[in-house]
UniProtKB/TrEMBL annotation:
The keyword Secreted does not apply. GO terms for biological process: proteolysis. The keyword Manganese applies. Its EC number is 3.4.11.9. Its cofactor is Mn(2+). GO terms for molecular function: manganese ion binding; metalloaminopeptidase activity. Residues 40-186 form the Aminopeptidase P N-terminal domain. Coiled coil: none annotated. It catalyses: Release of any N-terminal amino acid, including proline, that is linked to proline, even from a dipeptide or tripeptide. It comes from the Bacteria. CDD domains: Prolidase. The lineage of its organism: Bacteria, Bacillati, Actinomycetota, Actinomycetes, Actinomycetales. This is Xaa-Pro aminopeptidase. One of its GO terms (cellular component) is cytosol.
């Protein structure tokens, strides 16, 4: 007896009706469908995004998979989240559209964008009630081809037509696919390359496409700026919920998770969910940069560092960090560290006004950090000497970068070339974080005893305009006095 496939094994537990009478009956007497979606606002912006890529790869076929569902356990999948390059070029967000592929086909004068996806089947089909992947009885309303075209402004076709379409004229036409996006689509492209003698330099060609797809997102258009503002508004609401939850969290044996859960609920209610795993790090946990275990207690007299960002339906995210006194009041030592970090934030934003190189923002923050560490007697050399590339002693207590781009990914545009990222000059439309910190682990004997166990990071989201850099997250309190007043107001 041959071994069953996973798909066949799944049928072992099914009780799906199989009779012809049922099939005919379920396809009858359905009312009219509601009107389809209107054209999305973002559809006015995607053509210019396509054009920027078209100019970089004239005459080549460019393939951007959305990606597919990923198994969480057995036959349960994670919620779908499209590859960011696909979302940027189609405008699709939420949980749209697993298995879809956008292809930019070379045509006279540029490229034509075609979206390949699985449109809904009629209610008379078996797919409607029996297909747990695409059937509307299982997954809810789906769009027809015409509705998808109306919503996105794109030409659309059935996903089954994609293979023949991207095979056309290969050899005469080069093809690139975004790597690490959809293994099935990447395997198909590899097969077609093999058949058409296009394997040489393929890996580098695909890497360059991913790089370019990242680089065209370094400056945001008006739609993207508005979406990130929305994400920041939701994130502010989430921080307010966390502050309100603080008294309950103090009484819970895993209070950090109470805080995490309060933010997650608000992010899901008002947005698409989390832009990244929330860091809710109380006490010494704040000195672990990516503390996402969130299983510790909250104790009066300690701080909690919260790094959280809500993702809105368009998939743009915020990225905000605040360090809060758990009992509502900073101690003298906590305030001293907090104010040093805040000064570094202010200096970094001040430097960003002058359209400097991106890396200069970090350098400005480090000057402030080193100055305070010298004042506290923690450096073996002067602040000036520590700042030299050959020393960097101050980085023991601030080991990460000060800024990163922000957008569809929390660490947006990460595949861009260094000369267009760290070494670039600030341009209007760039959105990035400023997030210096100081991390004084409780077992670090080089730290003055009064500071041990204190970890502080303050993070805001910054937009470069024609007139300079502005703090998009200005509405979220950040000075020590403002934070104390904010907490007192929300907990009264």
């Amino acid at each position: 007896m041959s071994e069953q496939t996973n798909e066949e094994k799944a049928h072992n537990r099914t009780q799906r009706p199989q009779s012809q009478a049922f099939r005919e009956f379920i396809g009858q007497d359905w009312g009219a469908r509601p009107a389809g979606p209107a054209r999305m606002e973002v559809a006015d912006y995607t053509p210019s995004r396509h054009k920027r890529l078209s100019e970089l790869f004239p005459g080549e076929r460019l393939v951007f998979p959305a990606g597919d569902l990923k198994v969480r356990s057995n036959d349960t999948d994670y919620r779908f989240r499209a590859h960011s390059a696909f979302s940027h070029l189609t405008g699709l967000g939420g949980e749209d559209e697993p298995g879809a592929v956008l292809v930019l086909n070379p045509v006279e004068g540029g490229h034509e964008a075609v979206l390949y996806f699985h449109p809904r089947a009629p209610r008379s089909s078996e797919e409607f009630y029996a297909d747990s992947r695409h059937g509307e009885f299982w997954v809810g309303p789906r769009l027809s081809a015409q509705e998808m075209s109306t919503a996105t402004g794109l030409k659309v076709a059935h996903i089954d037509e994609m293979k023949d379409a991207i095979s056309k004229d290969l050899g005469a036409v080069q093809i690139r696919v975004v790597p690490q996006s959809d293994p099935a689509v990447e395997a198909l492209v590899a097969e077609l390359r093999q058949q058409n003698g296009l394997t040489e330099g393929a890996e580098q060609a695909d890497a360059r496409l991913a790089e370019a797809a990242s680089e065209i997102r370094l400056t945001k258009d008006a739609y993207e700026v508005a979406e990130i503002r929305k994400a920041i508004d939701v994130t502010k609401s989430g921080f307010e919920e966390m502050i309100r939850a603080m008294p309950r969290a103090i009484d819970h044996w895993r209070g950090e998770r109470v805080i995490e859960g309060a933010f997650q609920a608000k992010a899901r209610e008002e947005g698409n969910g989390l832009g990244y795993d929330t860091i809710a790090a109380a006490g010494n946990h704040a000195n672990t940069l990516h503390w996402i275990t969130n299983d510790g207690r909250l104790r009066d007299g300690e701080l909690i560092l919260i790094d959280a960002g809500a993702e809105v339906d368009s998939l743009y995210t915020a990225d905000i960090t605040r360090t809060l006194p758990i009992d509502g009041k900073f101690t003298e030592a906590q305030r001293e560290v907090y104010d040093a970090v805040l000064e570094a934030c202010e200096r970094a934003l001040e430097v960003a006004q002058d359209k400097v190189q991106f890396k200069d923002i970090h350098a400005a923050a480090m000057e402030v950090i080193a100055k305070h560490l010298e004042r506290w007697g923690m450096l073996p050399v002067s602040a000036e000497e520590s700042l030299s590339p050959e020393a960097q002693y101050h980085r023991r207590w601030m080991p990460h970068g000060t800024s990163h781009h922000l957008g569809l990914d929390v660490h947006d545009c990460a595949q861009a070339k260094r000369e267009l990222y760290q070494d670039s000059y600030l341009e209007p439309g760039m959105i990035f974080t400023i997030e210096p910190g100081l991390y004084f682990r409780e077992d670090d004997l080089k730290v003055p005893e009064r500071f041990r166990g204190i970890g502080v990071r303050i993070e805001d989201d910054i937009l470069v305009t024609e007139d300079g850099a502005i703090r998009l997250s200005e509405g979220i309190p950040r000075t020590a006095d403002a934070v104390e007043a904010w907490m007192a107001h929300l907990q009264q």
